[in-house]
Design a protein that fits this description.
A: alpha+beta; four-stranded antiparallel sheet; 14 strands; globular; B: alpha+beta; Cyclophilin; 2 domains; six-stranded antiparallel sheet
Chain lengths: 243, 348
């Protein structure tokens, strides 16, 4: 446990943000400490902090340099980071449907072959874990999940694709993720969820919070089409489970 | 109400204000004006609060027409020829278009982006407190995409306010100031190469990122780090060793090591460097960057006080226009090659 209280590295990101780095690697303990510090800042706001962005291994703290200076902010962040970690009491558990393979996941068969698995075995291993939303970033609602089965680790594609579909469920390195809007990606596309993690005129606009946990479950293409129509109308689709 | 009709417009022209902040934790790109000083200048002249939504004009020319009522406008930022029908209007001076009058803007001659502010702002439904266009996320008002010929913007009719001017600031030749980090320790001696190098901005740059051309910056431990958060001005270095400076349409996280960050006070000045023009970086401390931020905030705050009422001012329009023309010209061919996708370097 002692390692948990090693002070984070404090790295300036220009004159209006500080990266509080707990690890250089993808590290579950580091991510828990990131989310714990994020919750502490939300619970005990510091004047001048404008927003925080949790990532796998660091918390990016944006601040207004006209309101607070780096030298005043740093010791306060270090003090908060040294507090004993509390687990997220408010974190939620979701069940998220995924149509694997075919037009919904064009890399499923290639990935299965590369890993010497049947497509069904690949799906079984991808739906087995309880994932945690380690961070949301890159584009709106792009949710990076920790907890990928280590046997599914695979380098990213040599040539990233410029356009990948909304709702794509993909793997890249030790990571898996839920992409919300269409965009470029170098990850391997396994499937597609009808769930919109970001939808502008829906309440909530953003479905998932960093720290939420979730399970993926397989659905067929017909179910996907039905759910997709409902999601387009603003249904959340994802089920919130009592955890 | 009046209508401001987009008669003719090139790419990279969109409605922008201060941007939308507070949801970067959900991956929401901030967007917003790339040169805040120029936005605030145009707005001050038009009689608006500093970060009122205005039209951010890319390096190309554009034409607009006033309809239904009078419209007060002002243009600041990159210099370009400005005409209302056949009358010449200087940069940094407000004017009122009468219904039917046409505003013709030339290509950028010095700098890249200009801001066309309209008195009373632009009507539209804000999302997350901003009208800024972010086409990928489907955000922006009145249209969630760059402006196109034929668009109509609803604006307030011009008030009786008098016209105002501001003397344009001389472009600074100083290096672009950066704070090293957050991952400068990934680069070892290459930090010196980065600071000693002479750089140019590649024509294949856009509002997501400006690609730099200069010495190859080598990583000590490879170019893949675990994605972490980005800010406006983050200088990330992909595998080819040619840095990319992240701009307001950036992804909120990125997986390349970041050698340094352009300071807030110099970000707009950096964004206005035309492709191909050499420049350098200079490392400063966080404390020095903060002093620059405070000075920059004062500069923004004092804009309205520095304005002069055109009616009470002997304004030599021709001399001012000649002074603008004398600036080193960005040729239109370069300007036209400027816009292209950097998306291949942007991935999760």
């Amino acid at each position: 446990m002692a390692a948990e209280f090693l002070p984070p590295r404090i790295l300036p990101s220009g004159d209006a943000a500080i990266t509080v780095e707990f690890s250089r690697r993808i590290d579950d303990d580091a991510n828990r400490r990131v989310l714990a510090l994020d919750r502490l800042i939300a619970a005990e706001p510091i004047a001048g902090i404008t927003e925080t962005v949790p990532t796998y291994r660091s918390l990016l703290v944006h601040y207004d340099p006209l309101q607070i200076d780096f030298d005043s902010l740093v010791p306060r962040l270090i003090a908060l980071a040294a507090r004993p970690m509390t687990d997220a009491s408010a974190s939620r558990h979701w069940r998220i449907p995924v149509a694997y393979g075919g037009e919904h996941g064009i890399d499923l068969y290639d990935v299965a072959r590369t890993l010497s698995l049947t497509p069904d075995a690949l799906i079984a291993r991808h739906t087995a874990p309880v994932y945690r939303v380690a961070m949301i970033g890159f584009t709106p609602g792009w949710s990076y999940l920790s907890g990928l089965d280590a046997t599914l680790e695979l380098s990213r594609r040599q040539e990233p694709r410029l356009h990948t579909p909304p709702g794509t469920i993909s793997i890249g390195g030790v990571q898996t993720g839920i992409q919300c809007i269409a965009g470029p990606s170098g990850w391997h596309l396994l499937g597609q969820t009808p769930v919109r993690t970001y939808q502008l005129h829906r309440d909530p606009v953003f479905l998932l919070e960093p720290g939420d946990t979730l399970n993926l479950y397989a659905i067929d293409a017909k179910t996907f089409a039905e759910m997709d129509r409902a999601a387009e109308r603003g249904d959340i689709i994802a089920e919130l489970a009592a955890s | 109400m009046s209508r401001f009709v987009v008669t003719n417009v090139g790419p990279a022209t969109s409605v922008q204000d201060a941007g939308r902040f507070g949801a970067q934790r959900y991956g929401l790109t901030p967007s917003g004006a790339i040169d805040r000083l120029a936005l605030a200048t145009a707005n001050a002249l038009a009689g608006n609060p500093p970060f009122t939504a205005a039209i951010e004009l890319g390096p190309f020319g554009a034409t607009f027409t006033a309809q239904d009522g009078p419209i007060r406008i002002a243009v600041a930022g990159a210099s370009r020829s400005i005409k209302i029908d056949d009358r010449v209007l200087p940069l940094n001076q407000s004017a009122t278009l009468m219904p039917g009058e046409r505003l013709t803007l030339g290509a950028a001659r010095e700098g890249v982006f200009s801001y066309l502010a309209i008195e009373g702002g632009i009507q539209g439904e804000a999302a997350f407190g901003s009208l800024s266009v972010n086409a990928r996320a489907g955000l922006g008002a009145p249209v969630p995409r760059p402006l196109q010929s034929g668009d109509h913007l609803h604006v307030r009719a011009a008030t009786e306010r008098s016209e105002h001017a501001l003397p344009p600031l001389a472009p600074s030749p100083d290096p672009i100031r950066v704070v090293l980090g957050p991952q400068d320790d990934e680069f070892g001696d290459a930090v010196k190469a980065f600071l000693d190098g002479t750089w140019t901005i590649s024509p294949t740059s856009d509002r997501m990122g400006y690609r730099l051309q200069g010495p190859v910056i080598r990583h000590q431990h490879g170019h893949n780090i675990v994605s972490d958060g980005t800010v406006n001005g983050s200088i990330q270095v992909p595998g080819n060793g040619q840095p990319i400076v992240l701009m307001p349409d950036r992804g909120t996280s990125g997986g390349y090591p970041k050698i340094a960050t352009v300071i807030g006070a110099d970000f707009g000045r950096f964004a206005q460097i035309p492709p191909g023009r050499p420049f350098r970086f200079q490392a400063v401390s966080v404390a020095e960057a903060r002093r620059a931020a405070i000075a920059f905030a004062a500069l923004l705050r004092d804009l309205p006080a520095r304005m002069v009422d055109v009616a009470h001012f002997e304004f030599n329009v021709v001399a001012l226009q000649n002074a603008n023309v004398a600036g080193s010209a960005v040729n239109a061919v370069d300007a036209r090659t400027w816009q292209s996708e950097t998306q291949q370097d942007q991935q999760p």
